[in-house]
Design a protein that fits this description.
The protein folds into four domains: 126 residues, Response regulator (Rossmann fold, 3-Layer(aba) Sandwich), CATH 3.40.50; 176 residues, Rossmann fold (3-Layer(aba) Sandwich), CATH 3.40.50.300; 78 residues, Helicase, Ruva Protein, domain 3 (Orthogonal Bundle), CATH 1.10.8.60; 64 residues, Arc Repressor Mutant, subunit A (Orthogonal Bundle). The strands form five sheets. A five-stranded parallel β-sheet has the order 2-1-3-4-5, with helices on both faces. Strands 7-10-13-6-14 form a five-stranded parallel β-sheet. The longest helix has 30 residues. It is of the alpha/beta class and 477 residues long. It is built from 20 helices and 16 strands. α13 crosses α19.
């Protein structure tokens, strides 16, 4: 949610009408809803030159039909032909069904009869801007998926991954981060939904703060006071006025975690906040406005809660305008070695120890584990194992929860004859150590998306060591 109920476009809106008072009224109506970037033209002959200055200089054109010099009827097909992606709304006093049908056939987005009611005007503009924004997002997403490049790689630096699934999510996040619509993050417990919410904020370029609120355990009174604050004397003990966290998140991002646990009465208040950008502090009858981007997260199935009558359907549809589903760790096992090495370094530093040596089959066991607690569970396991380690060598015995995994890692048992057969099938003969090294380096680079730090982690060597081997390979070639 941005500064108003209307999506705020990056480009200005163009109003074309030969009546100055109509231009003034329409401009003031848009301004009251937060859109201040409005350009007016009263001489229809200036419209096409203004449009042709740039490829598409306006987010939307609002066009009168009956004008001297050049009518809207003449202008509409020219605009639609030259700029097919730019919505055109007709505003006219001409109440003629045939004229309306002709305009829609010629590319008009909507047809409004003067005098236009404010609600009808705002509804038409909102729909046009949202459809245009969606088209822009789709086009941007196509480009990003094809190029696989990120504009804000630093925004995702806290998320350790080499998974193509997660990389695609990064591209999607860069497209939607600047959207005015709420974003819903779903995924199992421990997948890192809070890290993705922070990445959205970093990629959004919003100047305000990132404010996180955990909804779990908050009744309606606590939710209202935490989010909206209270006025002095609102309840016993309220001796001072208190701003809520929503005020702290103004101009930034408000992250509501565990949104599935939101109290029914609080759902109504959140819906008003999203829909109108308005709220009442507890104990106050003074309406306040705020501009903040809403990001929510849950590990629950909100559709099931809607069907059970425990979550408002209208709120659900507002929240899932953009949805990010984070896959569980068991569906992206390529990330396990990277995360394991990352947490191993963290744990070693936390306990002020040297990084321990790791038994060969630990990663095999971890990669085959179910991980109901996902990344958070893996982190806890590694920290506990390092705390247990006394001789500088990590062994499977220091991962007791792996023994109790209800999904045993049956593939961990090694069969020399089977594995030798696999190697011969891959290389056509039993490979040399040098060939195996070349193969492992190449595969590690593939899995890490050609990221040398990630590849080094997979190979359990330092990045300088990997660099030396890569340089040696180049020299040999």
């Amino acid at each position: 949610m941005r500064p108003s109920t209307l999506p705020v476009p990056a480009l200005p809106i163009l109003l074309v009408d030969d009546e100055e008072h109509v231009l003034d009224i329409t401009r003031l109506t848009l301004r009251s809803k937060g859109i201040t970037n409005v350009i007016t033209i009263s001489d229809s002959r200036m419209v096409m030159p203004s449009l042709e200055v740039q490829k598409q200089p306006y987010a939307l054109v609002m066009l009168d039909l009956m004008m001297p010099h050049m009518s809207g009827t003449e202008l509409l097909p020219k605009i639609a032909s030259a700029f097919p992606q730019m919505p055109v709304i007709i505003m006219t006093a001409l109440y003629d069904v045939e004229a309306a049908v002709t305009c829609m056939k010629n590319g008009a987005f909507d047809y409004l009869i003067k005098p236009v009611e404010e609600s009808r005007l705002i509804s038409a503009v909102t729909k046009a801007l949202r459809i245009e924004a969606l088209a822009d997002e789709i086009e941007s997403l196509k480009k990003k998926l094809l190029s696989d490049t990120l504009e804000h790689p630093a925004a995702f630096s806290e998320i350790i991954t080499c998974s193509p699934q997660i990389r695609r999510l990064f591209s999607y996040i860069e497209v939607i981060a600047r959207s005015s619509e709420p974003i819903l993050i779903t995924g199992e417990t421990g997948v890192g939904k809070d890290l993705f919410a922070q990445a959205i904020h970093q990629a959004s370029d919003l100047k305000g703060e990132f404010v996180s609120v955990n909804i779990a355990g908050l009744d309606d009174v606590m939710f209202s006071d935490t989010l909206f604050g209270h006025s002095k004397g609102a309840f016993t003990g309220a001796s001072l006025h208190r701003e809520g966290l929503i005020a702290k998140a103004a101009g930034g991002t408000l992250f509501l975690d565990e949104i599935g646990d939101l109290d029914e009465a609080s759902q109504i208040k959140l819906l008003r906040l999203i829909h109108q950008g308005e709220y009442y502090p507890v104990g106050s009858d003074t309406l306040k406005k705020v501009a903040t981007h809403i990001v929510v997260a849950t590990n629950q199935d909100l559709e099931e809660r809607v069907a059970a009558g425990r979550f408002r359907r209208d709120l659900y549809y507002r929240l899932c305008a953009h949805q990010i589903h984070i896959p569980p760790l068991r569906e992206r096992t390529d990330d396990v070695p990277l995360l394991f090495n990352h947490f191993l370094l963290q744990a070693s530093q936390a306990f002020n120890r040297e990084k321990p040596a790791v038994a060969a089959d630990i990663l095999l066991r971890l990669s085959a584990a179910h991980f109901p607690g996902n990344v958070r569970e893996l982190r806890s396991m590694v920290f506990d194992a390092v705390a247990r380690c006394q001789n500088g060598h990590l062994t499977p015995e220091q991962f007791p929860t792996l023994k109790n995994d209800p999904h045993p890692a049956g593939t961990v048992t090694l069969s020399p004859s089977r594995d030798a057969g696999m190697l011969i099938a891959m290389f056509g003969r039993f490979p040399s150590i040098h060939e195996m090294e070349e193969f492992m380096i190449a595969e590690a680079l593939k899995l890490s998306g050609n990221n040398q730090t990630g590849a080094a982690a997979l190979l359990d060597i330092s990045r300088p060591t990997l660099n030396k081997r890569l340089h040696r390979r180049e020299f040999e070639e």
